[in-house]
Amino acid sequence: MTWLFVVAVGPLILFHAAAFVLESLLWMRPAVYEELLPKFLPPQAMPLAVQAALLRVPFLNQGFYNLFLAAGALVGLLLLRPGYEQAGAALIIFAGCTAFGAGLVLVATTKARAGGLVQAFTGLLAAAVIMWNYAVL
C-alpha cells in the first residue's frame, strides 16, 4: 500500500464514517436533524422534531449502510498487499463506484448537493486511482 492509495481512499472512508455518526448515532439531536432534514425533504407541515422521530429508523439504516461501505473500503485498503491486491482492489472499486452512484442520486434528488458531490467525488477518486494503478481502465 502506498501513500497515494491512502490519500485516494481515505476521504471515502472518512465521509461515510462521518455520515454513519450523523445518521445513526446523533440523528435525534436537534442540531443534526434541523440541518439535514430540510436538505433531504420538501417542507412539511409537521415540526422537524416529529419528522426526525418518524425517520429515525430509516436514517439509522442509512447510517449503517454508510458504515458498512466505509468498512469495505477500509478492508480493501488493508488488503492492498502482496497476495491480496485483487481482493483489496475489488472492494475499493466496488465501494467507490457505489459511493459515486449514490452521490449522483443525492445530487439529482435532494437539496443536499454539496454532500452528494463530495460523496460522488470521493468514490470516483478512490475507484479511479485503484483502477489506474491496476490497469483496469
Structure at a glance:
This protein is an all-alpha fold. Helix content is 80%, strand content 0%.
Describe the structure.
The chain is mainly alpha-helical and 137 residues long. 80% of the residues lie in helices and 0% in strands. α4 (56-78) runs antiparallel to α5 and α5 (85-109) packs antiparallel against α6 (113-133). The longest helix is centred in the C-terminal third of the chain and has 25 residues, at 85-109. The model has no long low-confidence stretch (mean pLDDT 94).
**Whole-Å distance between the termini?**
20 Å
The string of secondary-structure elements, in order, is HHHHHH
Spans of 5+ residues with little confidence (pLDDT < 50)? none
Question: What oligomeric state do the depicted chains represent?
Answer: single chain
Taking the sheet with the most strands, its summary is: none
Estimated radius of gyration: 16 Å
SS strand fraction: under 5%
Number of DSSP strand runs: 0
Look at the helices and sheets and give the structural class: mainly alpha
> Outline, from the CA principal axes?
elongated
Q: Helix coverage percent of residues?
A: over 70%
Helix run count: 6
Mean pLDDT over the full residue set: 94
Question: Which SSEs are present, and which pair or pack?
Answer:
Elements: H1 3-25, H2 30-40, H3 48-54, H4 56-78, H5 85-109, H6 113-133
Helix pairs in contact: 1-4, 1-6, 2-3, 4-5, 5-6
